[in-house]
Amino acid sequence: MFKSHNFVIGLIAAASILAASGAYAQDLVGVRFGPDGDKTRIVFDIQGAPAYSISGVENGLGRLVVDFTDITVNRADQKYKPGKGHIERYGFAAKAGGGARATFDFNKTAKIKEAFLIEPNGAVKKHRLVIDLVTADKQAFMASLPAQYPDLGAFIERATAAPSAPELFVPPAPRQKEVATPPAEKRVIVVDAGHGGADPGAQGKRGALEKNVTLAAALELAEILKKRGRYEVVLTRSKDTKLKPDKREELARKAGANLFISLHADAISQKAVRGGSVYTLSKQGSARSAKMAKSQGDFQVYDLDVAAFGDGVRDILFDVAQDETNSASSQLAKKLVENLTGITPLLNRSQRTADLRVLLAPDVPAVLFEMAFISNAKDEANLNSPVWRKRTMTAVADSIDAYFDEHGEQRFASNRAGGAR
Fold first, then answer.
1. Pairing between β-strand 187-193 and β-strand 300-301 as defined by DSSP bridges
2. Which of 121, 255, 262, 274 has a CA positioned 20 to 30 A from the CA of residue 16?
3. Three-class secondary structure of residue 342 per DSSP
4. Rounded Cα gap, residues 88 and 107, in angstroms
5. In terms of Cα–Cα distance, which of 419, 414, 415, 409 is closest to 150?
6. Is 42 exposed, middle or buried (0-12, 13-18, 19+ CB in 10 A)?
């Protein structure tokens, strides 16, 4: 598949480097933190003048990424360690072709106030890269990244935020007579109709069952997507059958899904509440996914068992896969809210996160769409309406189109070698 293939190449390349490396030069002396109220200073002590770049990831509370093109790190540093101040934890990973990547997970979102390099001076023989953080929201964090530009040529590195793949030499193909361009590979979309069989889900006042309205919507969405010719559509169920949440996830992963969308209908005791909402996996859900993987020994992501890398590197790679997946899920959720607005009623805070079992796959971007409140009379009528169903599922399909039209573009920040401000 598109992303999984590139991710596997990246991880295999990283594995080769880690396996072949006996020892690393002590170019990275250490990392220090200076927390002070709403400020945190990160200091890298480095032997030699580093070339570096700074980037950021929006998901969760935010992640700061610093890439070094010319330093190496010890195996002991290639694992997560506790941070201080705004930093919950940090870790390093060796990069293909040399260099290293440092990742810093926020426990409190911050922006970059200043980043600069201090050269050796007097008794201090090492270079010091300093990054000052101050408390801010995620929008301010992303805006604070220096010299933003779209990273168009490093998809694998961008997708993994961990050891990246070297360029692979491909011998030029013999010159051949021009032929028609083959059709593009279709993305695999798994459409999940919530509940089913002996599990009816919620019930409306007029008797509508969640398992029936979700199935009708899933069939409608599948038909719309197939007609667009861009997708291979897989239904978790096409009739009134019961399927456990973990089986839905398993089906999506076996299908090589590029996206997973689960359709549900909400219910609440307050009958006046109505409107749809879109859920992605919460931070607690990501932690549960990692915990489950560890307990079950299942560290399979993108067709590669990252357990072979050893505890420290394995945890980083698994977490990196989750980061990429959660980021992609959030992109789809945003598109859904944009396209559904004005088409069907939505809750005020319509993009949400939750620890939902059906969203736990670490390598499949996934959303759960609560289409409406079946407990509300007007929403129940909508859920039973073929006209509403077609209009709403068309908006969902438009969102999927928009996601794939834009997916792969990620905001990335860098400064020139040497860290000039």
1. unpaired
2. 255
3. coil
4. 5
5. 409
6. buried
Q: How far apart are CA 340 and CA 400, in angstroms?
A: 12
pTM of the model: 0.53
CATH topology of domain 187-406: Aminopeptidase (3.40.630)
SS3 306: helix
The number of angstroms, rounded, from the C-alpha of 88 to the middle of its chain's C-alpha atoms is 19
**Dist CA 304 CA 308 (whole Å):** 9
The CA radius of gyration of the chain, in Å to the nearest whole number, is 24
Contact 365, 261 (CB under 8 A): no
CA–CA gap between residue 349 and residue 421 (Å, rounded): 38
Collapsing DSSP to helix, strand or coil, 393 comes out as helix
Q: What is the pLDDT of residues 163-192, one digit of tens each?
A: 433 334 344 454 444 444 444 578 899 999
Instruction: Kindly state the DSSP code that residue 298 receives in the 8-state scheme.
Output: -
What's the whole-number mean pLDDT along residues 263-279?
91
Tens digit of pLDDT for each residue in 121-152? 878 888 889 999 999 998 899 888 874 433 33
DSSP state of 415: -
Rounded Cα gap, residues 278 and 337, in angstroms: 7
The end-to-end CA distance of the chain, in Å, is: 40
Please report where in the chains the tokens 């969760």 appear, as a residue.
60
Taking a C-beta distance cutoff of 8 angstroms, is the pair 135, 86 a contact?
A: yes
CATH code of domain 2-167: 2.60.40.3500
| Sequence letter at residue 354 | A
Indicate the SS3 state at residue 38: coil
pLDDT in tens, 217-245: 999 999 999 999 999 999 999 999 998 77
- Residue pair 226/282 in contact (Cβ under 8 Å)? The answer is no
- For residue 52, the one-letter residue type is Y
All CATH 2.60.40.3500 domain ranges in the chain, comma separated = 2-167
Please identify which residue in the block is written with the tokens 């929403």.
Answer: 379
